[in-house]
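Researcher: Structure for this, please.
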Amino acid sequence: MPDLVEKLTIKNMQPEDVDEVVAIEKQSFSDPWSKENFLAELDLPFSWVWVAKIKNQLTGYCCCWEIEGELQIANLAVHPKFRNQELGRKILQEILNRACQRKVKKVTLEVRESNQFGLKLYYAFGFTEIGRRKRYYQKPVEDGLILAKILE
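Model: Predicted structure, token format:
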């Protein structure tokens, strides 16, 4: 099997990508963002919205907010059929690379405390837990862990 990570390209999300993004979102999260949420992100000046593609196949996406030297990863997902193939790692690495290029000092995110795959990925990249948001997630109700990484 060819190395999918090497074939992955990350580009700005376009309106025509949103239906595929929403489909992945619904397969990935119990309380998914709507099509309108993603379309609104495209117009926010502080929002980074990207899709990851292999050829023309949308395999994942991310949404981040850059505000005053800090980056909040709001949403990151990989299509279920492409999971466990290092694509999430590649997307996160690209986020961090671009954050460094833009002189971002700190990257934060929230993650469900039960999301072992996400936690393993974020900890591998040097994120640390800095707090907890009680009952942050719905469907099911669960605490969210606040993770952060200081960039050099």
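Researcher: Any notable elements?
Model: The first strand starts at residue 8 and ends at 12. The mean pLDDT is 93.
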